[in-house]
Amino acid sequence: MQSLAEASDRRMGRSDAREAPALTDRRTVLVSSSGFTKAALLVAKSHNIRAITPTGVTPGFVGEMANNLESVWSKWSSFTPERMVLKVQWADGTHEVVQASTDLGVFRADGSLLFDAPQLANELMKLYHPNNDAMRDATGDEKFFEFGVQNPVHEGAPIYLRPFVDQQPVDLVPIITGRAVIHVVETPLKHGE
């Protein structure tokens, strides 16, 4: 079994049997028949994803995107978080791996509860986007994923593991793991004369 990982030091295994040809210029395009909300367009733009409707598929778009391609690889995915650990480095240099149970709290600087562990995992999964090396290299054989975020913040402010504690981590990396379902379909292209 293979795993899908966004972290740069955790690359997924590859299956040579279904390896997509390498492209010098990779692009991600989302197409929706009903269009996109302003928020979705902003997210797409921030991740260098082109969002279009079928009316946006003009001859110029086709020429820009497809005239030199022999096939298109369509990918869609589903991720189900199952477990989260927090890798912590304290100011004194000690390291700790904290199992994120439902009673683990994440706090604001004023000591008020921000999230419990499942809520934190859900918030962090919102940061995962398909425009990354691991997803571009996905072959469809992936069964698990691992996603980490270095020193996450909430609304621009640091998060804390314990309320009103002077010592806070100097390095905090939540690692979420779970099941991944990746569908990859190759569609051969035939160009007109």
Helix content: 10-25%
Radius of gyration: 20 Å
Low-confidence stretches: 1-24
Strand order of the largest sheet: 1-8-11-4-5
Order of helices and strands: EEHEHEEEEHHEEEE
End-to-end distance, in Å? Answer: 43 Å
Q: In terms of structural class, how would the helical and strand content be classed?
A: alpha+beta
Strand content: 35-45%
The strand count comes to 11
Count of domains:
2
The general outline is elongated
Features:
alpha+beta, 2 domains, elongated, 193 residues, two-stranded parallel sheet, 15% helix, five-stranded mixed beta sheet, single chain
In a few lines, what is going on in this structure?
This protein has 4 helices and 11 strands. With 193 residues, the chain is an alpha+beta fold.
How does this structure look, described?
This protein is an alpha+beta fold and 193 residues long. The chain folds into two domains: 134 residues, no CATH class; 48 residues, no CATH class. Helix content is 15%, strand content 37%. It contains four helices and eleven strands; from the N terminus they run E-E-H-E-H-E-E-E-E-H-H-E-E-E-E. The strands form four sheets. It has a five-stranded mixed beta sheet with strand order 1-8-11-4-5. A two-stranded parallel ribbon has the order 2-3. It has a two-stranded antiparallel ribbon with strand order 6-7. Strand 4 and strand 5 form a beta hairpin. It is elongated and about 70 Å long.
